[in-house]
Amino acid sequence: MKILDIKELSIRVAAAAAPPLQLLEKVSMHIERGETVALVGESGSGKSLTARAVLGLLPSAAQVTGDIDLGGLAVLKASGAQLRAMRRGRAAMVFQDPRSSINPVRTLGAHLIEPMMQVPGANKAMLEARAVELLASMGLSNPEARMKQYPHELSGGMLQRVMIAGALMNDPELLICDESTTALDVTTQAAVIRLLSRAVSERSMGMLFITHDLALAASIADRTYVLRHGVLQEHGVTRQVFERPVSEYTQQLVAATPGMRSAPRSGSQPSGSAGAPVLSVENVSKTYQLRGQPPVRALKSVSLAIPAGGGLAIVGESGSGKSTLGRIVAGLEHADSGEITLAGGAITGGSARERRLKTASRVQMVFQDPYQSLDSRLTPAKALAAVLKLHYRLDAKAMRARIGQLLESVGLEERHANLYPRKLSGGQRQRVAIAKAMALNPRLLVLDEATSALDVSVQAQVLELVNKLRKDSGVAVLFISHDLAIVGEICDELLVVQDGAIVESGPTRAVLGNPQHPYTQTLLASVPRPRWETDPGAGTDPDPRHGDLEPARNNRS
Amino acid sequence: MSIQAASRLPLKHLSLKNRRWGLIFSTSFLALILLAAVLAPLIAPYPPATVDLLRVNSGPTAQHWLGTDALGRDIFSRMIHGSRTALAGPAFVVLLSTILGLLCGLWAGWSGGRIDAVISRAFDIVLAFPALLLAILAVALFGKGLIAPVLAMSIAYTPYIGRLTRQLVATEKNRQYVSAYAVQGFSAPWIATRAVMPNVLGVVGSQTTQNFGYVLVELAALSFLGLGIQAPQADWGNMINEGQSALVSGNFLPALIPSVAVVLVVVAVNTVGGWLSDKLGDPFA
Amino acid sequence: MAQSNLAAATPPAPGAAKAPRQAATALKLAAGKIGAFLFTVFVSSVIVFFSRWLVPGDPINFLLRGRSPNPEAIAEVTAIYGLDRPPLEQYWNWITGVVQGDFGRSLQYRQDVTEVILGRLPVTLGLVVMAGVMIAILGLAAGIAASLLRGTFADRAIVASMSGLAAIPSFVGAIVLIAIFAVQLGLFPSFGSGNGFADMLYHLVLPSLALALSFIAVVGRVTRSAMVEQFAREHVEVARSRGITPVAVVIRHVLRNATGPILTVSGLLVAGLLVSSAIVEQAFGLAGLGSLLVSSVDRLDFPVVQAIVLIVVTAFVAINTLVDLLGPVIDPRLKAGEGAR
Asked: Which keywords label this protein (chain C) (predicted)?
């Protein structure tokens, strides 16, 4: 039986003094009872818009045509009261960021029971009892006390469980998850996904699972729709869509997705090349002391080394101290104790300026968010000129030549040289950031989550670029990431950090293939895998109510 | 702070077309006033202090376009002469407070820690004194006139600029582009002045123009209270004060004309300021 | 499998152990704010008292400006203000008096400053309270209405008239209101504060309105922008997606969350309100604190000026401290000392 039936849904927005923007073009899809359907696409594909359309949440400026049938209710023609009744009962939605989804000044209990309290004759005590029961089934300890807590007192993963409990309060027939696990750490994501799957199978609801992450879709969905620029590219049984994609776009998408692409196109060099290490870190510790809060030990006696031209990945979840380590290596912060040695020995003597420039010429860093790491006032050409001017004496001609060469080396064209960052895409901006780093011919490049803000296809291209640069210039790479699926494609050595300490290290393939430490094993098990690869049918999936709320941590950060 | 943010808001919601006309009108109006202030003795048809007891409260005539006041002085001429102090006072306050505020704010926001705490506490204490109150205190100490209140108000307005600058700099400092500069070997002073400052100036500039309006009103209020510019000298504030007595007898013009002038200048300055902040605030976004 | 290896880290369990610690933090925060208040008032009193020393010359001559400097007068002033004592002792004597409600002697009235001030207080209080009520009702109403109608013509009309209103200084408002309502229509008196309570209220209508005008506009704008900002928040959309009625969304998720910013800005406006009351009192011939301040400056009665400045500063800082203390009640995140919004 179809719970949701969308027929030829088109949405456009009339923009002032511009041709109307076509956001969705004749999208048709349906969801059966007890079925999980994934809607995948990159940013701007219109997937979130589809979800909002189903709940009748479109802005009044949108021109909608087509038909949405939600269990017999024609959503596009329904009255306000009908829509509200539907949102309270039949369909519920879980949003991306739980932190901003719950009113921060009201208690969780008030949040949970609010919709049902709107129904005449609602019984507050009964609703609260049900809310407590749902919180418990979501694996939250001490649910009664949670009802009186405020959102800021809970972690993101716990809040998302509260959101799901709120969505299940009135046993909806359809649950819509809009990037609901994107903001979570990988282990938390895995736990939330299990909760969702279980809720769907227990209640025989339908679930519309919206995500940009193909691997995640493959791990949860029965069927999958692929959306791009508002147009459906492909749909079908998930396995078929991913293993034998028909449309060219889906093929590209699958090829770009880490863990799905056939062979790692690693450009990494064999490690163990002789000579002094390009970076050696010995017993580095760092503690942050914030006023009125217990000290946070971000790094606990960490040691590592990278050989010249080598590649080392550091993997950990948020708060593991991996970014702190990167910042210390790049000289942005100072360690409380321990030694950092860059190739060429300790930098002593000379003026502060000389030491600064010398450090910069040895180690460079690329940051996570390309929208923030570029100065919005400088075009790529000007930004590169500023760096080059600081370090080298070049005449105008040599400067132009060098800028052109640098831009070319990161795959940018001449026309990009004089565009302000706002005119560049995320991938292009990240290329500019890389060009700036490479302008100084560093021996070591620190990449701090440098690809995690990018769409998958762009991510693959940037990774490819880094591999090419490694081959061409022999620069060593310290690759900091939360994503186990991509580290294998760039680094030969892998380090797993948890709570500021290294828990496991070794050659990437060995660590990923045969993890020793329980935390590494958990991380690996949490990486989404296609359903058809994991053993179906077998009831080995542990009850998500037990344990693994958050990865074991000694202190929060 | 949020007051300023809020008072900037309305401009954004007027349509572009309205805004363009408002901007053209405001700029030309301000240019006209500025010209009048500079050329006052050349333009004004009468000396501002010439008393003509035969033509008291005359209302607009061919000789006196805006009429005369209770002492028969030409209102139009007095308006022109009054524009000098009306513009010069706020200009000085805004200039001084902006320079001081930028320096202190940059220092506090960039250094953080103890320096930040001390400067911020100093700002808090100055903010406890409303600007007009500090100006009145200055008059009580040093006597009536323009100089003491202007200096007092420069101090009173410094923390408005300073706090804003401090907050903007502290936020900018944690942005990734600042780290990116640091990694490339740029020195902290270079980053603070060459990269962060330009990103801060736009917002501060709009605050500055807003302050101009506030200061103009407050200095006019001071002379309205009889504590600012003194009697024979023409000033919009004491023109309103003097015109008030004619109000009861139904002669509105002597008080109303300088009042309207104050309001128009403030609106014009804010319009230009709003446009400026949009232009400077984030020209590349 | 691996999951079982994940040691079940107990999330911070809410409960009995946590409550006292939270209460302690809240208390500590409140104590800090009150400490900051006392510090600011103390430093302000130092500034107000020692500002006299900024004026070059003999303090006796400063106090006796405009009065005949005959030996008796000098002796009297010296005795009353203890001018022969060292400055720190003078300050100590003054501030201990102030704490007990004794602000010293007025030069112009030849009576205690406290008495003079108490005689003027009712008018100013009446004026400020009445204006405050007008500001709260009209400002909030205009702001809420505009935010509900955001994007429509009515919204633009409200916003435009509020920007016009905000540009009207209180002395201009006074002039215009007197011209229209007192002179032309003859509905309200334009001068004096009347006799008796009801008459005083009647006399205060126009002054309060003149005082309130620009503040109504500012509160209206702040309310509108705070509401509009909340309307754009994701949790408001989430509330809508859960079938909450529009009225409940506005009250519980928008207005409720906008209260904090509105209150904060309103607290800051008090400074302008207190100072502008002097202007309005002057324009309407009201015998309040503000007109006392002006006449005391005029007649070189520095002890009264000192007292009023300190009172206004203290009142302003006290109200903002109060708003600050209310913060955690309005926004529970502030209880934990975390950044709000």
From this structure: Cell membrane, Membrane, Transmembrane, Transmembrane helix, Transport
ipTM: 0.87
Q: How far is A38 from chain C (nearest CA, A)?
A: 20
Looking at residue A255, its pLDDT comes to 85
Neighbors of chain C by Cβ distance (3+ pairs < 8 Å): A, B
Q: Which domains does chain A carry? A: 2-263+534-547 (3.40.50.300), 277-362+442-526 (3.40.50.300), 376-441 (no CATH)
Confidence of residue C340 (pLDDT cuts 50, 70, 90): very low
* pLDDT tens digits for range A453-485: 888 888 888 988 998 998 888 899 999 998 888
For C145-184, write each residue's pLDDT tens digit.
Answer: 999 998 889 999 999 899 888 888 999 999 899 888 888 8
User: Which pLDDT score is estimated for A544?
Assistant: 42
What separation in angstroms does the CA of B70 have from each of B38, B52, B240, B254, B256? 27, 9, 12, 8, 14
Contacts of A14 (CB under 8 A, 6+ apart): A20, A21, A61, A63
pLDDT tens-digit series, residues A184-233:
888 889 989 999 998 888 888 999 999 988 889 999 999 999 999 999 99
Q: What is the DSSP letter of C105?
A: B
Q: Which tokens sit at A311?
A: 């590649």
What is the rounded CA–CA span in Å between residue C236 and residue C253? 6
Tens digits of residue pLDDT in C25-58: 778 888 999 999 999 999 999 999 999 888 887 7
Query: Which two tokens mark A448?
Result: 């701090």
Task: Copy the structure tokens of residue C74.
Answer: 């000098």
Tell me the chain A residues in contact with residue C25 when contact means C-beta distances shorter than 8 Å: 292
Helices of type H across A449-540: 456-473, 484-487, 508-513, 518-526
CATH number of the B65-281 domain: 1.10.3720.10
DSSP state, residue C338? P
pLDDT digits over B47-69, tens only? 887 777 777 777 788 787 788 87
Tell me if B185 and A357 make a contact (CB, 8 A cut-off): yes
C-alpha C260/C-alpha A104 separation (Å) is 12
- The answer to whether the CB atoms of C305 and B255 lie below 8 A apart is no
Is A542's pLDDT higher than 60? no
Confidence band, pLDDT 50/70/90 cuts, at residue A17: low
Task: Please name the member of B177, B282, B285 whose beta carbon is closest to the beta carbon of A373.
Answer: B177
Query: Within A414-455, where are the H helices?
Result: 426-438
Neighbours of C208 (CB within 10 A): 24
How many other C-beta atoms can be found within 10 angstroms of the C-beta atom of residue A341? 16
Q: Comparing C-alpha atoms, which of B8, B95, B3, B6 is closest to residue B270?
A: B8
Q: How many CB pairs under 8 A join A and B?
A: 67
- State whether CATH 1.10.3720.10 applies to domain C119-299: yes
The alpha carbon of residue C270 is apart from the nearest alpha carbon of chain A, in Å, by 26
- From B273, B158, B155, B162, select the one nearest B212 (Cα to Cα): B273
**Contact indicator for C199, C205 with CB cutoff of 8 Å:** no
Per-residue confidence at A135, pLDDT binned at 50, 70, 90? Answer: very high
Q: What is the mean pLDDT of residues A37-56?
A: 90
Question: Do A48 and A40 form a contact (C-beta atoms < 8 A)?
Answer: no
Cα angle A398, A401, A403; round to 5: 110
**In angstroms, rounded to a whole number, what is the distance separating the alpha carbons of residues B17 and B23?**
10
Phi, psi of A106 (to 5 degrees): -120, 155
The whole-angstrom separation of Cα A374 and Cα A76 is: 43
Token pair for A441: 């011919």
C331 touches chain A (CB under 8 A): yes
Angle separating helix axes C256-284 and C302-330, nearest 10 degrees: 160
Q: The dihedral of CA B197, B200, B201, B204: what is its sign? A: negative
